[in-house]
Amino acid sequence: MPLLLRPSLVAAALAAGALPCLAPQALAQNARLDVAVQGVRNDQGAIRCGLFAKAEGFREPGQELRAVDAKPSGGQARCGFDSLEPGTYALAVFHAERGEAQLEYGIFGQPKQGVGFSNNPSIRFGAPSFQDASFQLQSPATELNVQLKY
């Protein structure tokens, strides 16, 4: 009498057997982002780095995929993000000299704090789009330099 297996059992067996093969590959896909922030005008407060994974909500407080604070020293700071999936991201940075949680704007809509973005796009006529600031995160690591503008 032939052994008959139901399709659901075959699928489950195949999936269970495939998982151990996928696990090492998935671990190898994790990437790190290292950001060197330059042009910091003093060592007060914190440098706040926000990493965004999509255009919707780019630069909006609370919409970042991850956020990291760094202590400025000697005109620079470093932000690091671990365990990221390779892909397209954009970074927004500001200098919270007085510990501000969010970027503040003046009368004409200009930021009161130093700001910077991945790719260092021009901000003369307003904040950049996600597309202007987007970059490709590669595995195992990507390094970016961001220049603050006050």
Count of extended strands? 8
Largest sheet: 5 strands, antiparallel
Number of helices: 2
The first-level CATH class name:
Mainly Beta
SSE sequence, one letter per element: HEEEEEEHEE
Mean of all residue-level pLDDT scores: 86
Estimate what percentage of residues fall within beta strands: 35-45%
Q: Kindly identify the CATH topology.
A: Immunoglobulin-like
Shape: globular
CA radius of gyration = 21 Å
The CATH architecture assignment turns out to be Sandwich
The helix content is 10-25%
Number of domains: 1
How would you describe the overall organization of this protein?
The protein is an alpha+beta fold and 150 residues long. It has one domain (31-147): Immunoglobulin-like (Sandwich). The chain is 17% helix and 35% strand. It has two helices and eight strands; from the N terminus they run H-E-E-E-E-E-E-H-E-E. It has helices at 7-28, 130-133, and strands at 31-38, 46-52, 66-70, 76-84, 87-96, 115-117, 134-137, 141-147. Strands 2, 3, 5, 6 and 7 form a five-stranded antiparallel β-sheet that branches. A three-stranded mixed β-sheet has the order 4-1-8, with no helix packed on it. The termini are far apart.
